[in-house]
Amino acid sequence: MTEPRETAVYTHGHHESVLRSHTWRTAANSAAYLLPSLKPHMKILDIGCGPGTITADLAELVPGGQVTGVDRVPEILEQARTTAAGRGLTNIDFTVADVHALDYPDDTFCVVHAHQVLQHVGDPVRALREMRRVVRPGGLVAVRDADYAAMTWYPASAGLDGWLDLYRRVARANGGEPDAGRRLKAWALRAGLTDVTASSGTWTFATPGERAWWSGLWADRTLASTYADRARLGGHAGEEELRAVAGAWREWGEQEDGWFSVLHGEILCRKGA
Question: What does the pLDDT look like over 187-199, one tens digit per residue?
Fold first, then answer.
């Protein structure tokens, strides 16, 4: 077993095909497990906020509180600021940060939230320790991550089998863990969090529109994103294989009986006194 790295390459990058997915995310479809615990005056840290759609939703749900969105990439934060400004939100701010070393005092936030982050970091246990450190006693650490090996689809497709194998190899070569969802509870316990509620949630793509959208963004991502570049440069796949995988995505998207489910692990951890 390799030692964890403190840094990892973000496998997806910020190509348009990636942001097509990220800007679709909302608090309702990506953080439903957390929402019943929110109160109007909470102070929330949203780690890995990306273009800020979930962050903005959280800010609307705590109108008397404050939400801070952080990401390692300054450029994507400009899009997040535009998202918040377009919705007229004043209780929200954004800044650059590294989840392994958060620049906040102990016990600062009521909630620390991270969606699809720990699968991409070099040391998820250290990241969770930092999240635990900056949350107040009695506060919550809320994390949700996909689990690629648990994704499933119909009809069977050798091309999508190849996509899954390729993606997992590229992600691990970048220092991440694509099957993070099933590991969240174990990582939280190793980080010293003891009051941990584990759950799961899914995204499902089955209507013609959903299939076209999901298959299209993955076909484009396979050919044109940072993930595609890493697959080529790392020797994981050549151009012919990438084109075959993209074609398999488009072929699946055209199937009238096509169905795809993305499983996510979720943890809601309350910090003790």
Answer: 999 999 999 999 9
